[in-house]
# Entry
Amino acid sequence: MKRSTPTLDRRKAVAEILRQRGDALVLTGLGSTCWDAAAAGDHPLTFYLWGAMGGAAMMGLGLALAQPARRVLVITGDGEMLMGLGALATIGVQQPANLAVIVIDNEHYGETGMQRTHTREGVDLAGMARAAGFRAAGTVYSSTQLKTWVPRFYRAKGPVFATVKVTTAYAPMVLPLRDGTAIKHRFREALLGPKAFE
Amino acid sequence: MPEDPNTPRRPDWPRAVHRLFREHEVREVAYVPDAGHAQLIALCRADRRMTAVPLTTEEEGVALLAGAWLGGARGALLMQSSGAGNCINMLGMTQECRFPLLALVTMRGDWGEFNPWQIPMGQATARALDAAGVVVQPVDDAQRVPETVAAAARLAFGAYRAVAVLIGQRVVGAKDWNK
Ligand SMILES: Cc1ncc(C[n+]2csc(CCOP(=O)(O)OP(=O)(O)O)c2C)c(N)n1
Ligand SMILES: [Mg+2]
# Structure
């Protein structure tokens, strides 16, 4: 299978995506994307997953259906996405116009010692998303491509999918809030106000 | 008029449960089909106040409903007992974050089962869910299904707990293999 070597830096890519977040709601996957989002700047409307591997995209769908007027971004890892591929089909069926799923694809399981994932062997996540019915789906290799994709994450009619190819260069851990109940309450209060505690 | 034995019996509980979903403002109904849930699934799919979300595997529903709650929406998850096994790790998030979860599980491998492959998961369903921190509420009498679901909904949405109502094979009927 044909493949290009990733050149993008994960921290810079995630920071560039999140710089334009506005009032968007953000979910991360477990592991590196969690630290990437924390490094880009903590935010009450970021929900950090510290577990639930394979669940990020589905959680994004649940949130997108509950909040149709808000943009929802899922920023997760390739290993995390591979564990829940059925979610692509389920999202394809629902066609949420406000959902973007972004895979920060280092082609490895970074958190567990950099073992290769299926994407390193050529498995094409964007192709799978397209086949599942995502309205826009693509693979991002360069910062020029990323610049054209970022506005799509926030404004293109969804569901939108992109896999952003990044290097395996070391990025220090930046740990956000980790008590799940606290992350939940903080997010709901920021989104729903006092209704969060009814 | 004598009852035609070939006419499938239409139980009343699915209508009552659908009404309860409305009362509790359940907006996202996720499911992997089971014959025992056929009527309730059809009612929810036809209800414009609800979004029916067919899943490829039950754990998707656990994550979906966590996201729904984050966004201020209530949901319910419908599955067969086999599906409980597919949910276990994802339920860790439900427990850690204290997300409400209302799951309705139709049992197989429970009462009058003919398919031996259903027995292992069917017999492990209650203990597996219990081990994953889910409050398990079995119901074996069709008349009692609505009140059990109503109580479970209060526990889920009022007390922020994960609850599974196990609807016994006595209620949904053992599958007729001669049909
Ligand atoms: C169900 C489950 N299996 C395995 C793990 C161990 N694990 C934690 S992070 C991770 C790798 C994540 O890889 P990826 O999503 O690609 O993230 P990144 O490479 O950005 O760290 C794995 C396998 C887990 N937490 N849960
Ligand atoms: Mg990875």
The mean pLDDT of chain A is 97.
